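Incident review: delayed structure delivery

Summary: a single-chain prediction request sat in the queue longer than the usual turnaround. Root cause was a stuck worker, restarted by the on-call engineer. No data loss occurred. The affected request and its eventual output are reproduced below so the record is complete for anyone auditing the incident later.

Affected input:
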Amino acid sequence: MKLSSKLDIKKPSKAKFSRTVLRIIGLLLIISSLIMLPPILVGYIYQDGDIKPFVGGFTSLFTAGSMLLFKYRSAKSDLKIRSGFVVVGLSWVIIGSSCAIPLYYSQVLHLSLTDAVFESVSALTTTGATIITHLDELPHAILFYRQLLQWLGGMGIIVLAIAILPMLRIGGMQMFKAETPGPMKDQKLTPRITETAKTLWYLYLGITLICALAYYMAGMNAFDAIGHAFSTLSTGGMSTHDDSMAFFNNPVIELISIVFMFLAGINFASHFVAWRSASLKPYFNDTEIKTYAGIAFAAIVVITILLIMNHAYPSLYVSLRQSAFTVISMLTTTGFTTNNISQLPNAVPFLLILLGTIGACAGSTSGGIKMVRVVLLNKLSMRELYRLIHPHGQFII
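Output delivered after worker restart:
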């Protein structure tokens, strides 16, 4: 009797879990379908073809998502921590695969299923690796779609969904903790997790718009300005041109890119606190940000010296300009390029790879192991060193 009663208790819980997860998946499929609407609009504006794959992808995903959402509309169970991780894992697989549909059925790209999924996942995870060539010849709809996927993936597409989930009476805190990197997940910028997610996205959108406007005023056309702003703030690094930032050959555009790549590498919670307090103190009081800026400055100085010693560029100005851009691009794991790195002195690529491995701050859109771990490793190392000198001492990290 006891065994059967226990089994009776567990079964409804599993059923509720399954219904909740399927309902969330339905919502995410709908979100994936909505991502395909802007490229349809762009394709209609430029009239350069390849709109049909986006129309087909939107129709199929929206239909499938609506069916799941309707069928499991009665699911009210809140998500536990385990469920949050399951949903996040499933979401990246499902969204990455579903967003590959227009790329796979494109009559211009002619990608295999593997290549289409690779391109989609690379963009959504802001990895920036690509197998697509001849970008300058592609329809605007496809180019815009790649840039948009990066931008949505930059802050975490799950965080976008969190702002909607409470309307479906499904808890979002566990998904937020599962999706958000580093210590940022424990920082409640607002009393409610929904408001926190919305706040981060408004901030992300605001900085992106400023970046796009700056690019446009510096000489980019509207399409390139928006596309590269998406890529800059997400630190994805994909471009609408084969030559990346070198296509523009514009020092002002490169400077703007440096500034916004650096900002994208800072914890977005720090951006919010600085904006709310109308002060720069949150930046100067943050050990991780100071370490991030210090490593960036030191790397720029070292690589500039190496470039000058090896006569890689004709002047100090060009060497400093190329060094600053490349260092920030690699440190934030963006990957924009203005030169052929393989032609630089041998030590430079090694240093750049090291910077990319470290990455920028936790809670930013950048990749890498994150600067906070470098700070922690340094403090732990110093503590152990002090312990060797003073075995009975007590030291605060």
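Verification: The chain is about 65% helix and 0% strand.
Action items: add queue-age alerting; document worker restart procedure.
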